[in-house]
């Protein structure tokens, strides 16, 4: 008789269970929920942002799509489209052998989500992820929205995230990246 592998209950269980899987999953209330693949447009936007951010902070500090963030609440993890790490994360990830930022580690300095079509995706990026990233203490969260043709920069304040929306030829301003060179239009149409 073959016994089924127990369902992951903790983030450690999740990491162990998913390390050999090709798909990405979120752990929500003990259930593995497969994350659908990104649209080609979103992949292109994320790749261009990866390149621009890598030029500012270095290649090793920027991760695309594959870095798991352990989160408070449900789901227990997220896979941001882009994550900019702190310098200390590079060594921590190397030492752990896992591509995951744990709750006992400092939060990354920036996460970026490119909004996919559909009401569920819009809600997830603008409400659910915003709340979780704010609770996690991530200093900046950028929402790049090809549907609305806008870039929303959420910056941590003493009262939570403050929000600024950029459109068209407006230069996107960031507290963390004061030398960010791109306008909203350039980020939305690389």
TrEMBL record:
InterPro entries: Nuclease_put_TT1808, Restrct_endonuc-II-like, Uma2
CDD domains reported in the protein's UniProt record: DUF820-like
Residue ranges annotated for the Putative restriction endonuclease domain, each copy included: 11-183
Single GO MF descriptor: endonuclease activity
Swiss-Prot/TrEMBL keywords: Endonuclease, Hydrolase, Nuclease
Organism: Leptothoe kymatousa TAU-MAC 1615
Protein name: Uma2 family endonuclease
């Amino acid at each position: 008789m073959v016994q089924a592998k127990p369902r992951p209950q903790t983030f450690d269980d999740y990491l162990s269970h998913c390390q050999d899987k090709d798909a990405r999953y979120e752990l929500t209330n003990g259930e593995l929920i497969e994350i659908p693949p990104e649209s080609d447009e979103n992949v292109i936007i994320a790749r261009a942002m990866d390149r621009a951010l890598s030029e500012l902070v270095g290649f090793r500090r920027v991760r695309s799509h594959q870095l798991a963030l352990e989160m408070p609440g449900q789901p227990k993890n997220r896979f941001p489209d882009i994550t900019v790490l702190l310098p200390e994360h590079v060594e921590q990830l190397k030492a752990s052998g896992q591509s995951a930022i744990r709750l006992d580690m400092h939060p990354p300095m920036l996460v970026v989500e490119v909004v996919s079509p559909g009401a569920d995706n819009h809600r997830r990026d603008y409400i659910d992820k915003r709340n979780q990233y704010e609770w996690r203490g991530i200093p900046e969260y950028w929402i790049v929205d090809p549907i609305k043709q806008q870039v929303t920069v959420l910056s941590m304040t003493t009262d939570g995230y403050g929000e600024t929306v950029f459109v068209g030829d407006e230069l996107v301003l960031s507290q963390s990246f004061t030398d960010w060179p791109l306008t909203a239009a350039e980020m939305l149409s690389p």
